[in-house]
C-alpha cells in the first residue's frame, strides 16, 4: 500500500504484552485505506508482530522518547492524514471512518484537525470515565487555555486526526519534553489549525498498574515548569485558565505526595485568579461536606 489515506502511528517501548492489542485495534478499523507505523523506541526486546502488509515496524537502537518516536513515525508516514495511538490504548473500530468523514464534511477553512470522545477503561474493560472534546476551537486559539464548554473536556488530545503536513509545518513534537508532550504540541497546533470535536467515543485509554511517563513525579514538575516557560505569552493571556491549569497541577502533586509542590502551586493559582480559585475551593469544600453528611 503505497499511498494510504491514513497513517496510524504507534510509538512503543517495552510493552510487548499490550502492543499487539493496540495494533489489532488499528487494523480492525472499518476504514481500511490505512497503514500502521509502529516505532519501537529501543525496547529491550525488539517488537515482534504477526505479518500484515499494512504494518511497518521501525526499530530505533537508541531511545528518543515518546515525542521523538512520534516524529520518526510522522516522517515515515505515507498517509495524507495521521493519528497517534499509545501502545497501551485502543481504537474503537469506527475511529478512522468517523473522523475522516467529518473532516471531509467540515465547512471551515482548512487546515482542520478532528477530535473525538475518549473512554478511560480498566483492565476488565469497564468504563471509568467518558470525555467528549470541545465542539470547535478556531484557528488562532490556544485549546485548553480557552474557557471550555459545559460537559466537554480538553483531555481528549489522544484522538487527534490531522494532516501530516500540518504536523511537519509546526515543527512536529518537541523532543525536549518527556511529560506534558500533548499539551505542548496542542499549544502550537491550535494557533495554526482549527480543531473540531465529535460527540462520539472512538478511543479507549487503558488504566493499568504499569509504568507511565506521566506518573513520574519529578518529571511532571520539570515538564510543567518548562511548558509554562516556553508558552508564557499564551498562558499570561488566559489568566483564568492559567490559574485552573496550575490548580489542577497542585491537586496532582498532592495525589503524588509532593506536598510542598502542591502548596506552592495552590498559592500560585490563587494569585493568578483569586476569584476563580477561591470559588473552586469553596465548592470543593461544600462537596466534601455534603458527602460526609450523607455518609
Polypeptide structure, described:
It comes from Oscillatoriales cyanobacterium SpSt-418. InterPro entries: Glyco_trans_2-like (IPR001173), Glycosyltransf_2 (IPR050834), Nucleotide-diphossugar_trans (IPR029044). Keywords: Transferase. It holds the Pfam family Glycos_transf_2. This protein has 295 residues and is α/β, with parallel strands linked by helices. 40% of the residues lie in helices and 20% in strands. It is built from ten helices and ten strands. α9 crosses α10. It is globular, with a radius of gyration of 20 Å.
What descriptors fit this protein?
globular; single chain; Spore Coat Polysaccharide Biosynthesis Protein SpsA, Chain A; 2 domains; transferase activity; Glycosyltransferase family 2 protein; 10 helices; 295 residues; five-stranded mixed sheet; alpha/beta
TL;DR of this structure?
GO terms for molecular function: transferase activity. By secondary structure, the protein is an alpha/beta fold.
Topology:
Blueprint: E1 6-12, H1 19-27, E2 34-41, E3 55-60, H2 65-76, E4 81-84, E5 90-91, H3 95-105, E6 112-121, E7 127-131, E8 136-137, E9 161-163, H4 164-169, H5 181-189, E10 194-206, H6 217-230, H7 232-236, H8 239-255, H9 259-272, H10 274-294
Parallel strand pairs: 1-2, 1-4, 2-3, 6-10
Antiparallel strand pairs: 4-9, 5-10, 6-7, 8-10
Helix pairs in contact: 8-9, 9-10
